[in-house]
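User: Hey, quick favor. My workstation is busy. Could you predict this chain's structure for me?
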Amino acid sequence: MGGARRLKVLAETGHALSQLRLALLYHVGQGMPRDYRKAANWYAKAAEQG
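Assistant: No problem, here it is.
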C-alpha cells in the first residue's frame, strides 16, 4: 500500500497526526492533486482532537 493511501486509512480511523500529515499533502499537492477543500477538512479533523 502506498504511503499516502496508508496515511489516509490511519487518518480515517481518527489518528490525529495522520490527519495533519494528510492535510499537508493535500495542501501542497505532494503525492496527490492539490485540494484545499480536502486539506481544510483534514486540518479541522486534526484540530478537533487537540
